[in-house]
Amino acid sequence: MKKKKRLTAPLTTVANVMGTIFGRHTAKAKRPAQDELAQAYVGIWHFVDGPTNKKHSLQILSNLSIKLDGQVLDGQIIGVTITTLTFLDHYGYQLKINADETGPYEIYDEAEDRSYQILKPPAPKTEPDDSKAAPQ
Question: Are 48 and 115 in contact (CB under 8 A)?
Answer without folding.
Answer: no
